[in-house]
Amino acid sequence: MGKRFEGRVALVTGGSRGIGKAIAKLFLTEGASVAIIDINQEALDQTATEFAQSGYEVFTKVTNVVNKNEVETVVQEVVEKYGSLDILVNNAGIIRDNLLFKMTDDDWQQVMDVHLKGSFHVARAAQKYMVEKKYGRIINISSTSALGNRGQANYSTAKAGLQGFTKTLAIELGKYGITSNAVAPGFIETEMTKATAERVGVSFEDFIKARAMEIPVQRSGKPEDIANAVAFFADEKSSFVNGQVLYVAGGPKA
Fold first, then answer.
1. Per-chain mean pLDDT for the chain
2. Residue 94 backbone phi and psi in degrees, to 5
3. Going by DSSP bridges, is the β-strand pair 33-38/178-185 parallel, antiparallel, or unpaired?
4. Is the pLDDT of residue 115 over 90?
């Protein structure tokens, strides 16, 4: 039986850690050529080395998704190296959590820039090649925070915005054989949620236990749970699934 993504080329933003890394790994194991971009050179090198030890080559480049020129350059390099770009996962993200009255202009703007401007830059650069080939899969990583979350006015707004962006791309690009969908993770064990635990002053273990009690399946999510959902949208067979948001949260709510 052939691998699901044999012959496909995938680009994952923010792919050096956590959810992005799990997505990249799944694509690699399923036969895809994979490029990951991130702003953290050390994390990129570490991930590339780890993948190489498992027998997988991955293209990496330090890229700031907020910088249009850097994005257009790296997308072109990926296409030149692998011959196409079939799957894009907009995963790059940051948090600058604070209650509204404490939130600074920079806290707001940085989160908007990375999540929204970044996804816009990469999707716009990638779609050009996908339209030419009449095939593409764009998957944006949203969040259950899009439904509202205390201390995350910026992040919630950005993640809700990504859902509107996803649905608009679905409408505009569908006729070119390109689908656009979003995965909205609930509580997932990553470096980002570890940082949240530190911010609220509890150990990560206690943080996980407390959150798991609120989740119907009684466990926290793993990066691999999100990777599996992304793979569903990225599959060639999912061509009639377009403009959808899939909440992967262990239950119907965040």
1. 97
2. -140, 160
3. unpaired
4. yes
Provide the pLDDT confidence category of residue 1 given band limits of 50, 70 and 90. low
Gap between the Cα atoms of 22 and 24, Å rounded: 5
Domain boundaries, the chain: 9-188+222-248
Taking residues 204-220, what's their average pLDDT? 95
- Is 155 one of the catalytic residues? yes
3.40.50.2300, 3.40.50.2000, 3.40.50.720, 3.30.390.50: CATH of 9-188+222-248:
3.40.50.720
User: Cα angle at 178 between 230 and 18, to 5 degrees?
Assistant: 25
Pair 238, 188: CB distance under 8 Å: no
State mean pLDDT over 225-235: 98
Q: Which of 129, 155, 176, 247 is catalytic?
A: 155
CA nearest to 140, candidates 105, 176, 108, 184: 184
- Residue 87 CA to residue 233 CA, distance in Å, equals 10
Do residues 207 and 193 make contact, with C-beta atoms less than 8 angstroms apart?
yes
CA–CA gap between residue 241 and residue 231 (Å, rounded): 13
162 in Cβ contact with 119 (< 8 Å): yes
Residue 224: pLDDT band (50, 70, 90) is very high
Whether the CB-CB separation of 118 and 162 falls below 8 Å is answered with no
How deeply is 194 buried, as exposed, middle or buried, from its count of CB atoms within 10 A (0-12, 13-18, 19+)? middle
Rounded to an integer, what distance in angstroms lies between the CA atom of residue 158 and that of residue 198?
23
